[in-house]
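This is your field. Have a critical look at both lines of this record:
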Amino acid sequence: MARHWTGHTILAGAALLVVACERTDTTTGAAPRVEAAVGGPTCNVPMDYPTIQDAVDASGCTTIDVAPGMYNENVLIGRTLTLNGAQAGNPVATRAFGGPLESTVKGSMLLGDVPVFQIAATGVTIDGFSVTNSVASGSAIGIGVKVTGSGAVVKNNIIDGVVTPDPVIVTSSSAQAIYLQNGPDDVLISGNELSHVFSIRSAKGIFIGDAGSTDPSTNVLIQGNSISDVTSDNRGAYGILVNNGNGSTANAGLEIRDNTITTLTGSSLLGGGWVHAIGLEANTPNVVVRGNSIAALFSPSPNKVAVFFEVNPSYATGMVNQNNFDVTILAYGIAVAPAIVGAGDVDGTCNWWGDPTGPGGPGGSGVVGAMVSPRVDYTPWLSAPAPNGACIGGLPSTPGKVTGGGQIDGDPVFAVDGVLLSLPALVPSLGDPNSRATFGFVVQAADGAAAPTGNLEYNDHDAGVRIKATSFDRLVISDGTCGPQTHAEFTGMASVENQTGTHTEPLTVKVDDCGNPGTMGDKFGITTVPSYQNGPSVLIGGNIKIH
């Protein structure tokens, strides 16, 4: 590849050169800066090499640090190394795509099918870049990992603007921000922000392919990424798509955790199209889908699904838990394609379906929550969004009584304010006088009763929030971290008074009884949807008692 600099890169390199020439015998106590030498093992771009590809081609460079600036190139990585952008190690939430502190790499190949970064060797790390790739024709790819790229780590990158304009009648071109090609294993995709991915055909945030592969991708972890604004004008939009082998390969060890996926649009000129936030459209034995938040799925067709199992013979081994499906009753939270042959249910318990009554539609028991298909076990469900919602939806109440009062980051003396409290709630606080929230409650479920009875008041003084329960629908007592029958969760409705007025909202409370005094481990946590959440936190003062 010919060496070239843009004017921006030269300025960025000059700025770095000033830093690089500082003395290292400083007396400030700071660790001296390790100066790079051409040839490695640590090399700087553009100070030592004018382009990233030049540094990658220098076999002595095992760590390559890229200064802030604009780099117009497509980089092929054919050996083990670590490639650090200027923001390596820094979370994407604190950064702006293409900003002056970013190492921004823009694909220079106008004819597509060439990633901005192509990983073709084991053990490669790409960390802390801004990446963009808008092509004139062909597929647009941000970062690609070939089958020879096992052990790759792709983290802390902002990939924004992966676009191909090819019409569907001319080509099969597509767009994907991160693309695992034909079976790399042990890949970590973590902490990236992927947005504005567009194709006339299917568009994906993360794609584990390909349909014709005979080599599965195993032990892939996709965690803590933000995926948004993925659009297909004529086919499907995906946050994450797994299609390796099209059902014929066993992509074992896949985990999809703690990602945020939103604003996916799939349409067509004829009103079709589809949206699958997480498409498990291959064989994924024992897949774990946990802690993800999915919202805003748009398509003129009814084919809108947060987690979709298709051509997946091991679908019944899937574990889909502790996710938030804020997709409305017009979309599915979890769906299993009817064409899949097999028996058994997906473990779809302990998810938030957008409403405390659980999933809605013909297959659910709720009112307005996201729909659910047959062959999904969804009970119990979360009564409030993860991670603080109680997983007791659909369960019968446990006969018993739970009482408590005190402070979590609350006032030093609990104010009763006229609410009936049990004796444990009247234990004086030993907490900090500047603490912030007080509470008191009594909730009891009689054997055979339709619903629990009781009362609860909570006051967050600093936030100006006051919560008063108006009804209870469920009390569940279970084993906890402090022993048998030491954890309780109850739900209902509450009047929530805050700076915007007074509102009626679903209520969820979690408590732990770890013995007297309450400050030895007793916990209290409260959530009202959608406005407030605090805890569970160890009490500063007071006590919880599960009878």
Q: What stands out?
A: The first strand starts at residue 42 and ends at 45. The chain has three domains: 1-25+32-71, 74-382, 398-546. Residues 74-382 form one domain. Residues 40 and 334 are 50 Å apart (CA to CA).
